[in-house]
Amino acid sequence: MADQLATSSNIHSVLVARSGNVVFERYFSGPDEVPGLFFGSRVKNVVFNADTLHAVKSVSKSVASLAVGIAIDRGLIRSVNEPIFNFFPECADLRSPEKDRLQLVHALTMTLGLEWVEATPATGENNDESRMYRAGDPIRYVLGLTSTGPPGQAFFYNTGALALVSAIVRKATGRPLDAFAREVLFEPLGITDVQWRRVRGDTDAGGGLRLRPRDMAKIGQLVLAGGRWNDRQIVSRDWIETSTMPKIKATDDQLYGYLWWLGRARTNAGVVNWIGALGRGGQSIRIVPERNLVVAVTAGYYQDYSPQAFKLQFGVFRDVLRAIPPPG
Fold it and tell me: How many structural domains are present in the chain?
């Protein structure tokens, strides 16, 4: 698999951990989006290694879910049923009978019931994520959107939900989400080299995180172990179990928890269930509890939405599964 990836793909890294041990780790080279010299990003050819930070895009959302769980564990946020407008009294003029039903849980499950266009490619003009960040106040932009249906009824992918989540964590903890996560999540995991972009003072929880693949695998291992790391409970087992349980049907073959994807994959020994943090361009952390397995992948297919690119990205995970025998 690795030989093929090295010659015919833009996969940047593959890391496999089983039973808490790294059993496969390979890095490649290829074009990648790196932070610009002054702002934005630029494309550069990169030779990747174990110390290279990589944009994980929407994997950031699942990491934000862990931070929310810790805030709830510590009583800083009362529950996922907290009304969203309770955190934003300055936006009271945007309230309506429909929007007053919005709760944190609806942001965590992508069921806000607000009109949102997240078109492809991501650089396109018809894109609410771009419009949100160009707006003077991203929170007002999201809460000012038109209601399309009752909250909680339908899944509709909305990165604007993470602007709300990020600001809620900041208001509840007194620190931007990245600073809170650094203290309560990254440092306990031994993750010291991390970048998390801020936009207009708030952490870009929807896609601004940069991690090393080894640290992506640590996030996966933390979930696999029920929130525990080196005999320390970093996130409560209750939050891990609750956030990775199916809450709503997302696509034809995937379900959604609290900012975690839930899917199934066929192997030589049958079908297995996986928990996933998935990001644009081929970034992924997939956890397979019944195989005690974590697979972290980075890639550079940021604007390639072709079936071939998607097939290749999932194919890496499928090939790993085929090489891992079932327990016993």
Answer: 1
